[in-house]
Design a protein that fits this description.
By secondary structure, the protein is an alpha/beta fold. It folds into two domains: 115 residues, no CATH class; 114 residues, Rossmann fold. It has 13 helices and eight strands. It has a four-stranded parallel beta sheet with strand order 2-1-3-4, sandwiched between helices. A four-stranded parallel beta sheet has the order 6-5-7-8. Helix 12 links the parallel strand 7 and strand 8. Helix 5 crosses helix 8. It is globular, with a radius of gyration of 18 Å.
């Protein structure tokens, strides 16, 4: 029997800045018994345009992604914010276009964030770290509030040998990235990420994990500029045992 096909929507940040996350996600999906397909031609989910009020551009990108992804029974995304854009906001984007709205709704039911897909499939993690490591987890806003992603990545990470997961205070507070928010309101964004970095340091963790590369790059950049040695990675890299690449360094 042929293995079911699962489309990997890699996201533009992963493609441009951290392809290792995409490879890790593909490995984890394949380990669940699925055939992984990375549809060529995928591009931005349209969230930056949508958040900036550019409805026309957001619709154009959404329409392109709907056409690209609707042939697949499952679409998996290693990003809570991009998965949330497709699942929650695509149908609303086409509220005045019934045919496209219905296609968007149908697609939204088949889109899952990576950790949710893995938990649903009962994924077993057999990775062990070469040395014990204490990590903490940052809950990204879109994944937490739009998709209810909270326990799923923690449940998977608890299976990693040698990894001690400790909770930082205010783990659900925003890191200050927010896509274009950090560009439009840099002073507020900086204060928010400074508070996040303080909570990370306070936890005593040597590694901070999350499920959105935008958050990870923002946190990593601030940690580096503040002289911290705390490493930053996407949780998929740890689950897949892909620790051969240096940690995320952050932008700027």
């Amino acid at each position: 029997m042929a293995r079911p096909e699962v489309a990997l929507f890699a996201t533009c940040l992963v493609d441009l800045f951290r392809p290792t996350i995409g490879y890790a996600a593909a490995q984890l999906i394949a380990d669940c018994g699925a055939e992984v397909v990375v549809p060529p031609g995928q591009t931005c989910c349209g969230q930056p345009a949508y958040n900036s009020g550019d409805r026309e551009r957001a619709q154009r990108l959404a329409r392109q992604n709907i056409e690209l992804l609707e042939p697949f029974d499952r679409v998996v995304v290693p990003s809570g914010s991009c998965a949330g854009m497709i699942r929650v906001h695509y149908p609303a984007l086409f509220a005045d276009q019934p045919e496209l709205a219905e296609r968007a709704r149908a697609l939204s039911l088949r889109v899952e964030e990576l950790s949710c897909f893995l938990c649903e499939r009962g994924a077993r993690v057999t990775v062990s770290l070469p040395a014990p490591l204490r990590a903490t987890y940052h809950d990204s806003c879109s994944g937490l509030r739009e998709l209810g992603i909270k326990e799923q990545p923690r449940r998977l990470l608890a299976q990693v040998g040698g990894l001690e997961l400790v909770e930082m205070r205010e783990c659900e507070s925003c890191c200050g990235f927010g896509g274009t928010f950090c560009v439009k309101y840099p002073e507020i964004s900086t204060r928010m990420v400074d508070e996040k970095v303080a909570r990370i340091r306070e936890s005593g963790a040597e590694l901070v994990l999350a499920g959105d590369l935008g958050c990870l790059m923002n946190i990593a950049g601030r940690l580096r500029r503040s002289g911290s040695g705390v490493e930053v990675r996407h949780y998929a890299e740890v689950l897949a045992g892909r620790l051969d690449r240096p940690p995320i360094a952050g932008a700027g």
